[in-house]
Amino acid sequence: MTINLNCSSLSSPGAVEDIAETIRVTGTVQGVGFRPTVYRLARAAGLRGEVLNDGQGVLIRVVGPQAVLDRFVQTLQEDCPPLARIETIVRSPLTEPIAYRDFQIVQSLQTSIRTDISADAATCPACLADILNPASRWYRYPFTNCTHCGPRLSIIRTIPYDRAHTSMAAFPLCRHCAQAYKDVSDRRFHAQPIACPQCGPHAWLENTDGQTIEDETLSPVDAVDAAGTLLQQGKIIAIKGIGGIHLACDATNEAAVQKLRQRKHRYDKPFALMARNLDIIEQYCLLNSQERELLQSPAAPIVLLKTRSFANTLSSRHLPPLSSLVAPGLSTLGFMLPYTPLHHLMLQRLDRPIVLTSGNRSDEPQCIDNDEAREKLGAIADFFLLHNRDIVNRLDDSVVRVVDGQVQTLRRARGYAPTPIRLPAGFAQAPAILAMGSELKNTFCLLDQGRAILSQHLGDLENAAALAAYQDTLKLYLNLLQTQPQKIAIDLHPEYLSTKLGKSLAEQHSLPLQPIQHHHAHIAACMAENNLPLGSPPVLGIAWDGLGMGDDSTLWGGEFLLADYCQFQRLARLKPIALLGGSQAIYQPWRNTYAHLQAVFDWADLQARYGHLEIIQFLEQQPRSLLDQLLQKGINVPLASSAGRLFDAVAAAVGLSPAQVSYEGQAAIQLEAMIQPADLELAQTSPYPFNLENIPMNGHTMLELTAKSMWSDLLQDLHQAVPIGLIAAKFHLGLACAIVEAVKHLSQSHTFSHVALTGGVFQNEILTRSVHQQLTALNFTVIMHHQVPANDGGLALGQATIAAARSLR
To answer: Which residue among 226, 407, 558, 670 has the highest number of C-beta atoms inside a 10 angstrom radius?
Structure first.
């Protein structure tokens, strides 16, 4: 936080006369109870003046003794509301003092917008107590909130953040709520979404025919409680929440979970879970103090947790086991706690977890509109729990985990977005830039005035509905922030829909276009969130992922780049291997196994030696002669140095989903999940070897990491029936050692002290931990992602910072 004092000339030392100041506060200071806090502190200090919201944040005009003003500003920082985040406080003389008689809150001003938009916040303890208290006016009211919690980004249409600019404008305040809104001693003072059963939104339960359910046999209480009864009965319910509509069912009911998977056509990807409290979660997962804190934080994300052996629960009252279909083949579960009053009330009588997954058709955006939900989810849900407060901005649930005491963000959305990311020193004068992001796990980024606003997770831009949702969200952000980009940054891949849209926008508005290499953007994002200033020496970025277009128009994915914010040099790579069938290789892992084996072995020798192995027999049943012809002729078999496809190849080789996967990286995730602590201990003595070779490349040499030795040892272990978990551990640790050896080798001929680990592959906990520990022991400074995802969800931040750096250069 920056504090700028510019008031020394207002009084002489020892003076006791009043002075007048303007105090400008920027950051996340609207919609979080900041003005009421200013009001209370100013009145308590005996100061006179006013406080208001405007487009830049909060403006305070205040009169009082110098010492009292100093204490006031100090107290304001110390007693900042829980959801507020002060970035700067600038004090300057009030040139035309007004004869204030007291201190008051005045109407917001419509000025140039430079303030932050608050993220939605989980129900605070005080509001939770209200909805559970029969004597409270908000008893069992599913839309209870105050200045410390409730909807923010999800309901806002424009700023300043006032009720008239949100979807709550449709609900005029009743007399009681208006009184609370105006009462400075009430925590709902100027809480814009304030409502109660008399004047606010309401929820109802309906069937798939659109008929409201009023059958008191389900619940004599209300529709929300009735939904809990239906979940206990094994029904699937579409539930309208704060940022979107979810599909829910009893997570311990095998038939219900199976039915949900079949109807939604989501056959393997893990489901998120919600439980009433930590005690229930702890019966299924291991929890440390950081994970508890994350679950109970205002952001209330999904937290990935290690599963507990069900035979070893903490309670003597064992809960039923989860369905085997909740997270098939994985060793982690994604849990969250209730984050809205509706969720708290619905789960009040449920002593077991529920599945709570996004309400959408496969590959489409999450539904946010009631009619849209009826149309698209009618064949999936048995009932609908809906309400009449519009969701303006779609927000998926955020996903995080804790690795070695550090929080890693895997999906940044509700609770975190759109909190700005302050850029490092040197970026303050950068022009406004719009970065379009990638094709998968898309986000976009708006960079302006030394900060980056990264959108919430928008998903995969694979169809018209997803692209339309992306465009709608971008339009909303540009309107909210009133940003006029001066340059547009795009990915190099010409077929990405985000790239095509960026080109169209640049042409439409006559803006310069800045193509950014995919892996350079990954590295720059890591540098930016680790606060490396503009002009820092180059870092060695290890950017490993599935695919990204290289600056030589080939597909990259296992890169060692010496990079700063402006440029990069490719020093090393994984050996490129053919993608058999192009994108088909992403969803049919056996194609990668065959391509890798064909690249390093004679197939006849391989068949003679290992023909009895299941993977070889499986590959023999595939159209090998056709594939060999395609390889020979170079038809739809692009070479790619993809680390992600190497993981897929190994997973398929040991029998994990060789034929088909339903989401990218599924086989690789399952491979990591096979590893037990004992496997890692055993693998320490014999990790699989990889080879480092210098190869000629465009007039110079490049270091290439090849897997021939690894494949020889792996096949021999399969021949000897070594357990899959140990094979997986030897692969992970061997690859980590190879990465470290490559870094050591490169450090002999290039100067760098920082190593950045980035790209989706470094969401693999075992690989990341091993590389980090070894490089740290060698005195390298290792930087990784925490605020933004290592995967393509953070790519737009890197695109924006590179475009900004090049503009400033």
So the answer is: 558
Query: E strands, 551-663, where?
Result: 555-563, 568-574, 577-578, 639-642
Helices (DSSP H) in 412-463: which residue ranges? none
Three-class SS of 304-349: EEEECCHHHCCCCCCCCCCCCCCCCCCCEEEEECCCCHHHHHHCCC
Backbone phi and psi for residue 338, each to the nearest 5 degrees, phi listed first: -55, 135
AA letter at 300: A
Phi-psi map region of 83: left, alpha, beta (phi>0 left; psi -120 to 50 alpha): alpha
User: CA 31, CA 446: separation in Å to the nearest integer?
Assistant: 21
Domains of the chain and CATH, by start: 2-105 (3.30.70.100), 203-387 (3.90.870.40), 420-517+789-809 (3.30.420.360), 555-563+571-783 (3.30.420.40)
- Are the CB atoms for 282 and 305 separated by under 8 Å? no
Whose tokens are 């058999």? That residue is 580
Closest Cα partner for 251 from 276, 220, 226? 276
Select from 455, 457, 421 the least CA-distant residue to 435. 455
Q: Identify residue 228 by its one-letter amino acid code.
A: G
81 vs 73: CA distance, rounded Å:
14
Distances (CA, A) of 530 to 193, 422, 447, 598, 698: 35, 10, 17, 41, 33
How far apart are alpha carbons 641 and 575 in whole angstroms?
A: 6
Handedness of CA 283, 286, 289, 295 (dihedral sign): negative
> What region does 352 belong to: left with phi over 0, alpha with psi -120 to 50, or beta?
beta
Per-position DSSP letters for 409-426, written without gaps between them: EEE--BTTTT--EEPPTT
CA distance 736 to 495: 33
Pairing of strands 383-387, 237-240: parallel
Q: How many CB atoms lie within 10 A of CB 637?
A: 20
Q: Tens digit of pLDDT for each residue in 226-263?
A: 999 999 999 999 999 999 999 999 999 999 999 999 99
From CA 423, how far away is CA 433, in angstroms rounded?
13
Beta-carbon contacts of residue 119 (< 8 Å; ≥ 6 apart): 152, 153, 299, 414, 415, 416, 417, 418, 419
Backbone angles phi, psi at 278, to 5 degrees: -65, -35
Write b or e for each residue in 585-611: b if 16 or more Cβ atoms lie within 10 A of its Cβ, otherwise e.
bbbbbbbbbbbbbbbbbeeeebbeebe
CA dihedral 660, 663, 666, 668 (to 10 degrees): 100
Q: Provide the H-helix boundaries in 748-794.
A: 765-777
Instruction: Give buried/exposed letters for 123-152 (b at 16+ CB in 10 A, else e).
Output: bbeebbebbeeeeeebebbbbbbbbbbbbb
Structure tokens at 721: 């029936």
Give the list of residues 6+ apart from residue 311 with CB closer than 8 angstroms, or none: none
- Residue the block writes with tokens 């020496």: 537
Checking if the pLDDT of 15 tops 90, the result is no
**Tokens read off for 99:** 């004869």
pTM here is 0.92
Q: What is the pLDDT of residue 309?
A: 72
How far from each other are the two terminal CA atoms of the chain, in whole angstroms? Answer: 27
User: How far apart are the C-alpha atoms of 137 and 186, rounded to whole Å?
Assistant: 14
Phi and psi based region of residue 206 (left: phi greater than 0; alpha: psi -120 to 50; beta: remaining): beta
CA distance 58 to 72: 15
238-261: b or e for each residue (b if 16 or more CB lie within 10 Å)? Answer: bbbbbbbbbbbbbbbbbebbebbb
Provide the token pair at 464: 């018209």
Any bridge partners for residue 536, and if so which?
Answer: none
Q: pLDDT tens across 341-387, in order?
A: 999 999 999 999 999 999 998 778 999 999 999 999 999 999 999 99
